[in-house]
From TrEMBL:
Cofactor(s) in the UniProt record: Mg(2+)
Organismal lineage: Bacteria, Pseudomonadati, Pseudomonadota, Gammaproteobacteria, Vibrionales
Protein name: cyclic-guanylate-specific phosphodiesterase
SMART domains reported for this sequence: EAL, GGDEF, PAC
Source organism per UniProt: Vibrio albus
Record-annotated EAL domain positions: 506-760
Family: Belongs to the hemerythrin family.
Length: 760
């Protein structure tokens, strides 16, 4: 595997420019040399010499230092700052020479990593702190200030430019140096291991003894062919037939022709063995035979492939024996479905894979109700036909990757694989499949003018780990199936009775949710958003379900169901319309016309083709002012088709709609995309706010989010603020907008109006 042997351990950004072209260009050259040193250390490029690279870096650094010193002396004159800066140059040279003394103490890899970490950290500090300060000092002196005034001005500008941000950047570059080198070395080690493995494969192929059945070869340059006399008899072609590729193809199907060419081309490109088994139709008697074809690439002295050469063997008898053995061993002869042996094999595979895939699987045990009565009254021949038709109907209800097996008599077992979601969601999906199977089986059968009406009882068990054996799962599904029979037949039961009850509750909630949408049983609550002075400047609109019997239902109970069933779309449309209507009312209220309103938009809703048009219509319908409506999007929206997302956001942003990333830092974050999005705000997730008092990691993350938001020209707001200490930490870091129970819980509009009164 080829790897680009280059690494930028110190990426250059325009923000590193200090404003003195000559010095900036020399900085870029120093960075370039440093990156070459990093590439050598990462890839051990034999065409380079590390001593020469380091000597080149030191020599150019000395040349650069002389340029700097001359420039500072010509603009500032000799003084305490110029002496200090000059001494830092001398210190750098001394530190590099000191590293030569560590070669007897450290291993070569430790020595190289420590050297590179020092060089990257020193150069970042040299540019961002020392040289930027000197440039500001020189500019101030040139403007007519005294040296003391110039020092005060330069120090002030350095503080205002954010020394904390500089320290964070320096720490980031130090971490980047070690992490990048470690990563590149890991990749190189893996590539070396892969090369060794491929070399082992090539050596193995070189000593293989091919069966002398029929020899063939195909030249790389012109695809001319050669073969031994046995080939004519294998293919049933005349002995005067010219050996060529078309002679091969005349006995192959079109699919086999394509597969043959692809395999040969792959061998020429990679050196891997050509091997395939395909069916031919012989020319002389039309007999269909199975051929195994093998070949390996022969190279010339220049390393270019000359030909691929190998042997052909008629494996028809072996192929038929293998298929018959497999069929008898693993398939039911009546229905051609997998038998118990193959079912258990697939079930064990599913159990083993479950632990890695982190998904749910479902085992269904199904028994045909009153099959024995039909079989005894009409005879086994009729019973066999019925079982065959039942197996066909079951298969039509399943998805690719699912397994249905006949394990004996009138008993079938089904494996449903790879369900995502929690256990209740998966159980609901599995029950839907089971009901579909039961409904299909209950449709009338017509067997030789006899009508048959039967049903099935189905038991199910869920599993998502490897703690339960295949035997135990079969036992549990069988128990559930007998519970279904005792419950009146033609029913579906889960092994876990509690799960069965939870599914009923969930299905009841889904049905009630559909009624709630039709009858508009929803209302909006508003959670105030305040600034550092406690002034309410806006709110977030949060949906609540006013259930006619249960009262207010928490969104955590119905939003997941709405997203899974697609009900989130009409629900989201209602939320947007109601929020825009409220904004229109605030615009007419002199005391609240400046309030903004944030609305959450789900992934499913935003991806609807009509979403942009709907929002545009609402903006026109309610004559909303620019900047008052803010849509909050989660990071999951940016996982795929980012160009579509950017296009839609840009269109809406041009209409005056603001955008905020909700729960920032908890999902899919990519600065590459964030800087392209028309965002005005980042919202710090409550998960980082809750432990600000005690968790240093959360403090660092929050600080970084705030600094990044400022750098990108965005505002920042923290949600989930619940006490004064959290608020003070956020204010200290520079976050001046808040939302949370410390200020107010989500409240009805009447209470919000009262809370946002001017005298509040």
């Amino acid at each position: 595997m080829a790897l680009d042997e280059h690494i930028d351990i110190f990426p250059w950004y325009d923000s590193f420019n200090i404003g003195i072209p000559e010095i900036d260009e020399q900085h870029k050259q120093l960075v370039s040399i440093l990156n070459r040193v990093a590439s050598f250390i990462s890839f051990q490029n034999s065409t380079l010499n590390l001593d020469d690279l380091i000597l080149e870096l030191v020599d150019y650094a000395v040349y650069h230092f002389n340029t700097e010193d001359n420039y500072w002396l010509s603009t500032i004159s000799e003084s305490e700052p110029t002496d200090k800066h000059h001494n830092s140059h001398l210190d750098f040279i001394q530190r590099v020479h000191d590293f030569e003394q560590k070669t007897s103490i450290l291993t070569e890899e430790e020595w190289l990593d420590e050297l590179l970490s020092f060089l990257a950290g020193w150069l970042a500090s040299h540019i961002l702190e020392s040289d930027k300060y000197m440039a500001l000092l020189a500019k101030a002196v040139q403007s007519g200030m005294s040296l003391d005034e110039a020092k005060h001005s330069a120090e002030k500008q350095m503080r205002e430019n954010g020394r904390n941000a500089i320290n964070i950047i320096l720490a980031a570059y130090k971490s980047l140096s070690s992490n990048a080198i470690r990563l590149m070395r890991e990749i190189k080690a893996k590539n070396q291991a892969l090369d060794m493995h491929l070399e082992s494969e090539r050596q193995l192929q070189a000593v293989m003894d091919y069966a002398q059945i029929g020899h063939w070869s195909l030249r790389y340059a012109d695809q001319s062919a050669e073969w031994s006399p046995q080939i004519y008899r294998l293919f049933g072609i005349a002995e005067n037939t010219t050996p060529e590729l078309e002679s091969f193809f005349c006995i192959m199907s079109q699919d086999s022709q394509k597969n043959f060419l692809d395999s040969v081309q792959h061998s020429f490109e990679t050196g891997e063995e050509h091997r395939m088994v395909y069916q031919i139709e012989r020319v002389n008697d039309g007999a269909k035979r199975w051929i195994e074809c093998r070949g390996k690439v022969v190279y010339g002295e220049d390393g270019i492939p000359e030909k691929i050469s190998g042997f052909l063997q008629d494996v028809t008898d072996r192929k038929q024996d293998e298929e018959q053995i497999t069929q008898l061993a693993y398939y039911d002869p009546l229905t051609q479905l997998p038998n118990r042996r193959l079912l258990l094999d697939r079930l064990n595979q599913t159990i083993a894979m479950t632990q890695r895939s982190q998904t749910y699987n479902v085992l269904l045990c199904m028994d045909i109700d009153d099959f024995k009565t039909w079989n005894d009254s009409h005879g086994h021949e009729y019973g066999d036909i019925l079982l065959q038709e039942i197996s066909t109907r079951i298969q039509s209800c399943l998805y690719q990757g699912d397994t249905v097996s006949r394990v004996g008599g009138d008993e079938f077992v089904i494996i449903l694989s790879n369900f995502s979601g929690n256990s209740i969601e998966v159980a609901a999906k599995a029950e839907s499949v089971a009901n579909r199977v039961a409904l299909s089986i209950s449709e009338p059968y017509f067997i030789r003018e006899c009508q048959c009406n039967i049903s099935a009882s189905i038991g199910m068990v869920l599993f998502n780990d490897n703690r339960t054996s295949a035997h135990e799962l079969m036992k549990q599904a069988d128990i559930a199936m007998y519970q279904a029979k005792e419950g009146g037949k033609n029913t579906v039961r889960f092994y876990d009775p509690l799960m069965q009850q939870e599914i009923k509750v969930r299905m009841k909630l889904e049905n009630e949710l559909r009624i709630a949408i039709e009858e508009q049983q929803f209302t909006l609550f508003y959670q105030p958003q305040v600034d550092q002075s406690g002034r309410i400047f806006g709110a977030e609109a949060l949906i609540r379900w006013n259930h006619p019997l249960d009262g207010l239902v928490c969104p955590d109970r119905f939003i997941p169901i709405a997203e899974e069933t697609g009900l989130i779309i009409p629900m989201g449309d209602w939320v947007l319309d109601t929020a825009c209507q409220q904004l229109n009312l605030w615009q007419q209220d002199e005391n609240r016309r400046d309030l903004t309103l944030s609305v959450n938009v789900s992934y499913v809703q935003f991806r609807q083709p009509s979403f942009v048009d709907k929002v545009c219509e609402l903006m026109q319908k309610y004559q909303l002012e620019h900047g008052k409506l803010k849509l909050e999007l989660t990071e999951s929206l940016f996982v795929d088709d980012i160009e579509l997302v950017i296009s839609r956001m840009t269109t809406l942003n041009n209409l005056g709609i603001e955008f905020s990333i909700d729960d920032f830092g908890t999902g899919y974050s990519s600065l590459q995309y964030i800087k392209r999005l028309p965002l005005s705000q980042l919202k710090i997730d409550r998960a980082f706010v809750s432990a600000l008092d005690t968790n240093m990691n959360d403090q660092s993350i929050v600080n970084m989010i705030i600094l990044m938001a400022k750098e990108l020209g965005m505002s920042v707001i923290a949600e989930g603020v619940e006490n004064q200490s959290q608020r003070e930490h956020l204010e200290k870091f520079g976050c001046l907008n808040y939302q949370g129970y410390f200020f107010s819980k989500p409240i009805p509009i009447e209470e919000f109006i009262s809370l946002s009164a001017p005298n509040f």
